[in-house]
Write a structure and sequence with these properties.
Radius of gyration: 34 Å
Low-confidence stretches: 1-20, 68-93, 482-486, 546-552, 595-618
Number of helices: 42
Strand content: 5-15%
């Protein structure tokens, strides 16, 4: 049976001869001749195979290659068996375009000649031609849909013949896939002693799709959607920008993307995939020059048997077939290249950073696909961004999956889950994949090595986590395998004392790198710091294989930038030679004000008066983490451990210096913030550096500093919107705010605190009159916590929880709490999914409520049924003044009940019904009721189901607004 490209049955008769089930391939080639002429390329592979199987002779091959063309007339160079030497004349863009057009005409002529030859040879030759297209799929990727549409299945005669892939393009693509599969099937993970298959450990994270205004559009379902056209806000841009905090999984996401492509499981037309880590560009000297060809091939893989440079020429002609990933753009070093000219020609040698810049801005290989990762807050010009995605870490479901991957036995899973559930802060940390990995790895390793190991019952800090990680690595050195009958008791100080030499060497290496802003190390640098070959097996370092063209591990890096910061902080604490005040060097660096810049490309377009001043990272997060870990290591909680490693006298001196600095800097920061008075009291929008101060204070565990900070906050209302607050930060915030003597308002809209963050803020809700948590990925469990606090303390006056993930369950929780609260007067519940059930619960809360004046239930999926309940209840409410029901599903069925509400004249002044499903009939009912109400100032009914002519009928009453 044969399925053709067209549906008409009479066309099949012209294509197929039915002799049993035999298909006429000669007639298929005849019928689809023009399609094949337009899509068939890589003719040399076809000619080689036809010649090898004796379907054509060498003279006939020569005839095809000598076909009269415009190329002959132009007198341009041409070599038998290969593509034209475009590279000989491609110095000019215009010439390259001319040659490309001539080349296209040559190919068309040669394809026609091949089809004529094959059809003269009969059915067997015709089928073999199609079989070559089928077997060498990479070379003929554009014809694979056609093969499926004609339902091609090779016959036994065809499969008995051999097919050799002599196409350099597809061979290179296959080589790329093979090497990428080899490099990505195992995770170059956080540790060198064991290798883990990517598929056995990878867990999806929350990929939040953003629009051009950084507003959430919802989560992506899979990585195919990352490359798709959905939510593209700038079709001219070429960069898919993936951002996220340190440790949230940006690199492993690219790892997964590369692995899927290598297995052909990624939905993309790209046949070439080049991956780069931006950190690798730091190995180049300022004087280094390299071509685009060498950048692509030397640091990925070279094409084999390509003397005429056909692969690179193909990439230049068809850049849309190329996919790039650039990992860690925020780690790119840019110093005296800031005034360098842009690179627009693929033939010119330039510094690798200039080539990278030109690739990203589309000056080179325009039309190629690019995925770029960077830390949250790294600004990139919108004109080059195609779409944006921010990684939010693990959801509770993801966390559960990740635990099940690490622990195969149900008893161990339950044990870990119980301990995590007992500590909301630890759960919040575990939403970050790196921190989760450390917790689970430490638990599994130490539980195996020792008689008992439980996660701390008290609040665990980031310093605790990285001390656990170091304990795991150091316990590998010289530790015997645990006995099956008896395990050794755990002694943390003994592990650190015995491993102090390599730990100090790694710490020294990290501090040196931090001071020069370079995070890739040579073997000589490792030796200078006192590291041995045995030390390299502990797991702190991993080879940077892509930085050596020969494939050897010539350079190394610490396994993660946050571990780098931790070890640098450890070096500052361990150093007994430098002055005690040197521990504050990075605090000073972070306190300097930096000129805001938008990356990339301004270092090419905009000059700099400080071209020789290094600006390695646009963000100084690595320094901030170093300060944070310094606070943790010098805290009293870790004094017992650190006194085994450092002189107690020096330790106390450094601790006193740090405490004095924190006290002074917090006061200075708070006094320097701009305050302004409003109806909500003295309001201040704090800067991101304030959040780092809170994190440092929490790491110290010092109640004295926390109390001093709380007393120093003179504002009545703190705005922390768009500050990239995640769930773990809420514990630091609570650590300070719980000591505040007066009530205050807190605005944390547009962050990522999640359900864990709300649980951590719970002790501070008794201090808050205003709670704004819009756009924070809150679910019904958060609302349950908030509702409980509303009922207990009854101090919250304004509550904003719009655009979260609240259902009717959460709607009922909140409605019941509002019903029992006499303090609350403003509630924003827009952009959730409470539906009619939630609306009914709110109706009961609104009935005779003594205080609530403003309520938004917009965009909640409320139909006329819910609208009827709300309208009936509001007839008994004389307090509500502003009511938003925008973007719901109210039809004319709700109009009579809303009209009764309007006619009741309860004191409602603003009723917003924008973007519902009311028609002219429903609006007439509302308009008639409005004539009987003198207090209502407006009913907004814009974007309902009325034409402009129908809207003009209601022009007399200006309170009925259509615009």
């Amino acid at each position: 049976m044969f399925i053709g490209l067209v549906s008409q049955s009479d066309c099949f008769a012209n294509i197929v001869e039915m002799e049993g089930t035999k298909v006429s391939y000669l007639k298929i080639l005849t019928y689809h001749r023009e399609l094949l002429v337009s899509r068939l390329r890589s003719i040399q592979c076809i000619l080689d195979n036809l010649l090898a199987c004796s379907f054509v002779c060498e003279e006939e091959v020569e005839i095809v290659l000598r076909s009269a063309t415009r190329m002959d007339q132009a007198g341009l160079p041409f070599k038998k068996g290969h593509w034209f030497h475009l590279h000989l004349l491609k110095k000019s863009t215009c010439v390259r375009e001319i040659i490309t057009n001539i080349y296209a005409h040559v190919i068309l002529s040669q394809v026609r000649k091949i089809l004529e030859l094959v059809q003269c040879k009969g059915e067997e030759a015709c089928e073999y031609l199609i079989y070559v297209l089928y077997k060498v799929c990479d070379a003929y990727i554009d014809l694979q849909p056609w093969l499926k549409e004609i339902d091609y299945a090779p016959s036994s005669d065809a499969t008995a013949l051999s097919v050799a892939n002599t196409d350099p393009i597809s061979r290179y693509s296959e080589k790329l896939r093979h090497e990428m599969s080899r490099d990505t099937c195992f995770i170059m993970s956080y540790g060198q002693r064991e290798e883990t298959r990517l598929e056995d450990l990878y867990t999806d994270t929350q990929m939040d799709l953003l629009n051009d205004c950084n507003e959430s559009l919802g989560f992506l379902g899979n990585l195919d959607q990352l490359l798709g056209d959905h939510a593209v806000f700038n079709p001219q841009g070429e960069i898919i920008y993936v951002m996220g905090d340190a440790g949230v999984g940006k690199s492993i996401l690219l790892h997964r993307l590369q692995n899927l492509w290598s297995k052909r499981d990624l939905q993309t037309d790209a046949i070439f995939f080049f991956k780069f880590r931006c950190r690798m560009f730091s190995i180049f000297k300022d004087t280094d020059q390299i071509s685009l060809r060498d950048l692509l091939f030397k640091y990925n893989c070279f094409p084999d048997h390509d003397p005429d440079n056909e692969v690179f020429d193909y990439i230049l002609r068809f850049p849309e077939k190329v996919l790039f990933t650039f990992d860690g753009y925020d780690e790119l070093q840019m110093n005296d290249l800031m005034n360098a000219p842009e690179v627009v020609s693929p033939d010119i040698k330039a510094h690798p950073v200039q080539l990278l810049d030109s690739l990203l801005c589309g000056k080179l290989l325009r039309g190629s696909q690019k995925v770029l990762t960077a830390r949250t807050g790294t600004e990139i010009q919108s004109k080059v961004i195609r779409k944006k995605v921010v990684l939010r870490g693990f959801s509770p479901a993801h966390l559960k999956t990740y635990i099940s991957i690490h622990f195969k036995e149900q008893a161990h899973r339950d044990q870990v889950s119980v301990q995590l559930d007992a500590c909301p802060y630890l759960c919040g940390l575990c939403s970050t994949p790196l921190f989760c990995w450390i917790v689970l790895k430490s638990f599994r390793h130490l539980h195996t090595m020792h008689d008992s190991f439980d996660l701390p019952e008290t609040c665990i800090t980031l310093t605790d986590l990285f001390l656990l990680l170091c304990e795991v690595y150091l316990s590998r050195s010289g530790s015997p395998e645990p006995s099956l009958l008896k395990k050794s008791p755990r002694c943390v100080s003994e592990t650190f004392v015995s491993g102090l030499r390599p730990l100090a060497a790694f710490a020294k290496l990290a501090l040196q790198g931090m001071e020069r802003s370079s995070f890739v190390y040579s073997q000589e640098e490792l030796t200078e710091c006192g590291l041995t070959e045995e030390d390299l097996t502990l797991g702190f370092l991993r080879p940077v294989s892509e930085c050596d063209a020969s494939g050897g591990a010539a350079t190394f890096e610490l396994l993660h930038i946050i571990l780098h910061s931790f070890l640098a902080a450890f070096a500052l604490v361990l150093d007994e030679q430098a002055a005690a005040g040197s521990i504050l060097k990075f605090f000073t660096e972070c306190s300097r004000k930096r000129e805001p810049r938008c990356l990339p490309f301004d270092f090419c377009f905009c000059g700099s008066s400080k071209s020789n001043e290094k600006a390695p990272f646009e963000k100084n997060e690595h320094l901030q983490f170093t300060n944070l870990f310094l606070c943790g290591l010098l805290s009293k909680a870790h004094a017992g451990l650190m006194e085994h490693l450092v002189s107690p006298v020096l330790l106390r001196k450094k601790r006193a210096l740090l405490k004095s600095y924190l006290s002074t800097s917090v006061k200075s920061h708070l006094s320097g913030l701009p305050y302004h008075n409003s109806g909500e009291g003295r309001k201040v929008h704090v800067l991101p550096n304030f959040l780092w101060m809170l994190r440092c204070i929490f790491e110290t565990g010092s109640r004295d500093i926390a109390q001093m900070t709380a007393k120093g906050i003179e504002a009545d209302f703190i705005k922390l919107g768009y500050c990239n607050v995640f769930s773990g930060d809420c514990t630091a915030l609570n650590f300070v705010l719980q000591h505040r003597p007066r009530l205050l308002g807190l605005d944390m809209d547009n962050n990522n605190i999640g359900d864990y963050g709300v649980k951590q803020l719970q002790p501070s809700f008794c201090k808050m009159t205003i709670v704004r948590l819009c756009v924070n990925h809150l679910s019904d469990s958060s609302i349950e916590v908030l509702a409980e606090e509303l009922c207990i303390h009854k101090v919250v006056e304004v509550l904003g929880i719009g655009k979260n993930k609240i259902t009717s369950v959460g709607g009922r929780y909140l409605a019941n709490a509002i019903q029992r609260s006499a303090s609350i007067f403003d509630v924003g519940m827009w952009g959730n999914s409470i539906g009619d059930e939630g609306a009914q619960a709110f109706a009961e809360a609104l009935r005779n409520h003594p205080r609530l004046t403003n309520l938004s239930l917009s965009a909640n999926g409320i139909t006329s049924k819910g609208g009827r309940c709300l309208a009936e209840a509001l007839k008994e409410n004389t307090v509500l003044r502003i009511f938003w029901l925008v973007q719901n599903e109210l039809t004319d069925d709700a109009a009579p009940h809303l009209a009764d509400l309007v006619q009741a004249n309860t004191g409602l002044s603003h009723l917003w019904l924008i973007n519902n499903q009311l028609t002219v009939a429903g609006i007439k009912i509302l308009a008639a009721a409005l004539n009987l109400n003198t207090a209502l100032k407006e009913i907004c009914v814009k974007a309902n189901q009325l034409s402009e002519e129908e809207e003009e009928q209601f022009g007399e009453d200006k309170r009925l607004r259509f615009h």
